[in-house]
């Protein structure tokens, strides 16, 4: 990998003289800086530091002050490939990013493990998932919030590993990943595209968007590889555009029904990091925030991998939205105590009858909202609506590795003889859903409207 030389220690990691390909890639992203190099083989990582860490062009500057934590490598220490990133808790699969076959290098890292994200805006040139001509580029969400890491995925197997480990996650982002997976297959395995596409489709069975994205790109295969790639890129660009429209529509509905400012509870992460840009449920709240119509947001931590505490809170902090993280079991009490006027969540699949499949822990929030008389709102693109699935009982609910529940950061916390049932999703019946908001319409299942 052609990368920058890591310089000395001056109150934090510093970037040294960058190799020309590194300088060519380094660029400022909405108050943050992406610093990278070029890799010819496999996936590779970039770690993004704060804007004062490395200026575009490779100029050296300290990132954040503080002592080097115990166990951190000294400046200049190389990380041998493959680089491995375990999902939080040391479980849930491992993503192997086979960097350039000689070395991968961390260019910038904050030593105190805390970031100020107020300058970060996830609507600039950097996206959750993107296409760079012959490879997929993702933000590795298993590394948030402490490290902002970008990985390049050049094969279908690398993409599947990223999906199963939750390095890329969220229904809309998975739809894009499905389409781009077929594009990768066309480029890397043109004689077995359908076989490779099947591997992508099977990576996560519950999220309908993944299969939808695969099918949309695969339908263009008779027209040739270029048509497949063009369709995959169209899926990518459509997601960015449609979710902004969804956010505006959801904000309109909430201001009309609840009034402003709206205090809201959300679950898991349905923000920009679950999409290409902007977000679904968090996109609605973001649109409210930009209008001055959002009050306080309560975010469930979302066990066992803490997408709420790690990712949603990180996004809210970057947007400057007042927020509080609560444990999942406290969510219904937040509602019962009158702290919020609405619950706004995303969805991984919406059945034809209006049943909603979303991250496990969603159903209790809908029950609490119904009891408290506040709206339970689901925000999701039309691609999440699965008219081929009659109801929630027909959905194959993913059960993930029990070690995600039984351990934390690679250490067992439950007795050796104890087993765990680790549902990834649950089903919220349609009669508990006040509104389903898409980019095209609002339907109100609880009132009998499913048109």
UniProtKB/TrEMBL annotation:
Pathway: Amino-acid biosynthesis; L-methionine biosynthesis via salvage pathway; L-methionine from S-methyl-5-thio-alpha-D-ribose 1-phosphate: step 1/6. Substrate binds at residues 169-171, 204, 307, 358-359. Signal peptide: none annotated. GO terms for biological process: L-methionine salvage from methylthioadenosine. Residues 67-99 are annotated as: Disordered. It catalyses: 5-(methylsulfanyl)-alpha-D-ribose 1-phosphate = 5-(methylsulfanyl)-D-ribulose 1-phosphate. Its EC number is 5.3.1.23. The active site is at 348 (proton donor). It holds the Pfam family IF-2B. GO terms for molecular function: S-methyl-5-thioribose-1-phosphate isomerase activity. Catalyzes the interconversion of methylthioribose-1-phosphate (MTR-1-P) into methylthioribulose-1-phosphate (MTRu-1-P). Belongs to the EIF-2B alpha/beta/delta subunits family. MtnA subfamily. This is Methylthioribose-1-phosphate isomerase. It comes from Actinokineospora spheciospongiae. The lineage of its organism: Bacteria, Bacillati, Actinomycetota, Actinomycetes, Pseudonocardiales.
């Amino acid at each position: 990998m052609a990368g920058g030389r890591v310089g000395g220690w001056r109150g934090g990691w510093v970037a040294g003289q960058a190799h020309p390909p590194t300088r060519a890639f380094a660029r400022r992203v909405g108050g943050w800086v992406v610093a990278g190099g070029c890799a010819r083989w496999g996936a590779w990582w970039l770690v993004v530091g704060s804007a004062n860490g490395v200026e575009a062009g490779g100029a050296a500057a300290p990132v954040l002050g503080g002592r080097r934590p115990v166990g951190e490598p000294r400046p200049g220490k190389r990380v041998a490939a493959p680089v491995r990133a375990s999902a939080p808790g040391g479980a849930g699969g491992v993503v192997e990013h086979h960097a350039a076959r000689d070395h991968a290098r961390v260019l910038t890292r904050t030593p105190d493990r805390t970031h100020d994200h107020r300058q970060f805006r996830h609507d600039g040139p950097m996206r959750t998932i993107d296409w760079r001509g012959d490879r997929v580029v993702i933000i590795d969400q298993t590394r948030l919030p402490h490290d902002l890491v970008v990985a390049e995925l050049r094969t279908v197997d690398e993409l599947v590993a990223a999906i199963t480990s939750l390095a890329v996650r969220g229904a809309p982002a998975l739809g894009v990943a499905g389409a781009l997976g077929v594009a990768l297959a066309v480029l890397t395995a043109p004689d077995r595209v359908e076989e490779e596409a099947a591997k992508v489709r099977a990576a996560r069975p519950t999220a309908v968007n993944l299969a939808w994205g695969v099918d949309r790109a695969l339908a263009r295969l008779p027209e040739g590889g270029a048509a497949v790639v063009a369709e995959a890129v169209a899926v990518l660009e459509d997601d960015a555009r449609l979710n902004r429209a969804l956010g505006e529509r959801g904000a309109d509905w909430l201001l009309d029904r609840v009034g402003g400012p709206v205090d809201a509870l959300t679950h898991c992460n349905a923000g920009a990091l679950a999409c290409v840009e902007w977000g679904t449920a968090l996109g609605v709240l973001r649109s409210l925030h930009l209008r001055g119509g959002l009050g306080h947001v309560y975010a469930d931590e979302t066990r066992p991998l803490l997408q709420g505490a790690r990712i949603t809170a990180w996004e809210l902090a970057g947007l400057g939205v007042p927020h509080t993280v609560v444990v999942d079991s406290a969510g219904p009490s937040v509602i019962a105590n009158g702290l919020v006027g609405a619950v706004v969540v995303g969805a991984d699949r919406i059945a034809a009858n209006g049943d909603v499949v979303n991250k496990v822990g969603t159903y209790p929030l809908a029950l609490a909202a119904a009891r408290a008389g506040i709206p339970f709102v689901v925000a999701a693109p039309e691609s999440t609506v699965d008219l081929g699935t009659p109801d929630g009982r027909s959905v194959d609910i993913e059960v993930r590795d029990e070690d995600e529940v039984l351990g934390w950061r690679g250490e067992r916390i439950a007795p050796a003889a104890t087993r765990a049932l680790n549902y990834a999703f649950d089903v919220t019946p349609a009669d508990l859903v006040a509104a389903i908001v898409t980019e095209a319409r609002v339907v109100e299942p609880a009132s009998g409207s499913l048109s």
